[in-house]
Design brief:
This protein has helices at about 1-15, 25-35, 50-65, 90-100, 100-115, 150-165, 195-200, 205-210, 235-245, 260-265, 270-280, 290-305, 310-325, 340-350, 390-395, 435-440, 470-480, 495-505, and strands spanning about 15-20, 40, 70-75, 120-125, 170, 170-175, 215-220, 220-225, 225-230, 250-255, 285, 355, 365-375, 400-405, 425-430, 445-450, 465. With about 500 residues, it is an alpha/beta fold.
């Protein structure tokens, strides 16, 4: 009986993806992986120092997990990247603003070349969430846009590029995270829309992607019109009824991280994993502590043993995971196009640069005042924004810069700035929208929206939107300020054309 139980544990271990705690594969973690035949790991920024270390790490994981290892990361582009030293890809919305599928395909291929060289075979991108919610706290520039056809065309081109270089994609977050007011890392959102609206809008990209996507990631969101009792990650009506049966999707379904508060604050780790698998998921991202990983494996094994997860369905899940791994074998590939890919990323960032309200830069050599947030800490999903001092140094290449920082926008007194004729530039370096005090009283001469483009709507001021703060994005902004580059992008979400026209008429 004990031997049979070990077989169940080995089956269960192949259905989870784990978080790792360090920059090398330690003996205890290797023993855990081998004991339970864990085949999946997701690496984060804290697991990475440089290319040599990361190649060693992924190589050790591949040796421990076997030839069907699934080694994943979130290398979306923009603020959501994990390997920060490789060519910096534009955010999804920057590519949406550029509006060129060929550009998107080339960027997707370049991203894949870089991460494959580091040993990864699975990238949790692109995002298919359509963003028509100006107050979404976690998606914003991670979305390619709001129009289902246009956004999906760019996203699918990005995905084709990645697949052409041997890296599997994972479209996310099904059935749509674009119209939420809550970050599921912090709480459980609800999208209370009628079915007809979900069909027309949220579902559209996933329906289009279903025949081609290697994998789909679930959303920790309740959709009352689809299943009022369960978040999508645990809803059989959504994962099996809609995605599998209605859309005919035959690839891998993986959950979002089960340690996110939307799930972890409501369910035990093992209970949540079994619920997700019973709903139709193939792999559970059990990325919490070692204790929760072990609890998850044992709970899944018990569910297999008792028939809650029928053995035939378990083997079907394992077959889908094997097909994914076999089609995208893990292991580093030579990377010989770093300089070429950096030049591509620079062109792509510049192509998405977007003007709002006919902004005009100050003349080179002018005295300017730069107002920027003092702290740029990571929100746990994204990399930290560009520090105010670094931004001042960048602008210092063109201007004589006085830097003024604020800790709390709602307490910062804009009217206390010296009335000395300096041209005042506000640089927004976080994803958070501004509150009522700032919106009512701040009056910059120029707003550089260097992250969340919706922040450009917070002020009646001309703006330049970059959709991200990576070095090539900032160089594109600097070139525009110097009169050496244009801003050809068009923001692919509602509200900006009208705001731009209103600002233009007022000037």
């Amino acid at each position: 009986m004990a031997e049979q139980h070990d077989d169940y544990l080995a089956l269960a271990g192949q259905l989870i993806m784990v978080r790792l705690f360090g920059t090398e594969l330690d003996a205890d973690t290797e023993a855990f992986i081998r004991q339970y035949r864990v085949r999946g790991a997701c690496l984060f920024r804290q697991n990475m120092t440089d290319a040599a270390q990361l190649v060693r790490f992924t190589g050790a994981l591949r040796a421990a997990m076997g030839p069907e290892a699934l080694l994943a990361l979130d290398q979306e582009g923009g603020a959501v990247v994990r390997a920060t030293w490789v060519p910096a890809p534009p955010s999804a919305m920057a590519l949406g603003a550029a509006g060129d599928p060929l550009f998107a395909r080339e960027v997707g291929a370049a991203v894949a070349r870089a991460v494959r060289a580091l040993g990864f075979n699975w990238n949790f991108a692109p995002v298919l969430d359509l963003n028509n919610n100006p107050h979404n706290p976690v998606i914003a520039e991670r979305s390619f846009g709001a129009d289902p056809a246009a956004a999906t065309r760019i996203a699918m081109a990005w995905m084709e590029g990645s697949e052409s270089e041997g890296v599997a994609c994972c479209v996310k977050h099904f059935p749509g995270h674009g119209d939420t007011h809550v970050d599921s890392h912090r709480d459980l959102p609800t999208v209370d829309k009628p079915l007809a609206e979900l069909e027309r809008f949220e579902f559209a990209p996933f329906r289009i992607a279903a025949p081609k996507a290697s994998a789909v990631m679930t959303a920790h969101i309740v959709y009352p019109a689809l299943d009022p009792a369960h978040p999508a990650t645990m809803s059989r009506a959504i994962l099996t009824g809609i995605l599998r049966q209605r859309f005919g999707y035959g690839g891998v379904i993986i959950t979002d991280g089960m340690d996110m508060h939307a799930i972890a604050h409501r369910y035990g780790a093992g209970e949540a994993a079994v619920n997700a698998l019973a709903a139709g998921a193939d792999m559970v991202m059990a990325i919490g502590s070692r204790e929760s990983q072990r609890d998850t494996v044992h709970a899944i094994a018990a569910a297999i043993r008792t028939g809650v997860l029928p053995l035939a369905e378990v083997h079907a899940r394992l077959a889908r995971l094997s097909r994914l791994a076999q089609a995208h074998p893990a292991g580093p590939a030579p990377y010989t196009r770093d300089a070429e890919d950096r030049a591509l990323m620079a062109r792509a960032w510049q192509a998405g640069l977007t003007a709002l309200g006919q902004p005009r830069p100050p003349a080179p050599g002018s005295a300017v005042r730069l107002v920027a947030r003092a702290d740029v800490v990571s929100d746990g999903v994204s990399e930290a924004g560009v520090p105010a001092a670094a931004l001042a140094a960048l602008l210092g290449r063109l201007y004589e810069v006085e830097l003024v920082t604020f800790a709390d926008a709602e307490r910062f007194d804009w009217n206390a700035l010296a009335q000395d004729g300096r041209f005042t530039i506000l640089a927004s370096t976080s994803r958070r929208r501004y509150g009522p005090h700032a919106r009512a009283t701040w009056r910059p001469d120029l707003h550089l929206a260097l992250w969340n483009p919706y922040q450009a709507l917070d002020f009646a001021a001309p703006a330049l939107m970059s959709y991200g703060f990576a070095p090539p994005a900032l160089e594109a902004v600097l070139a525009w300020l110097a009169g050496e580059g244009g801003a050809p992008g068009r923001c692919p979400v509602p509200g900006f054309d009208a705001a731009s026209a209103k600002l233009g008429n007022a000037m």
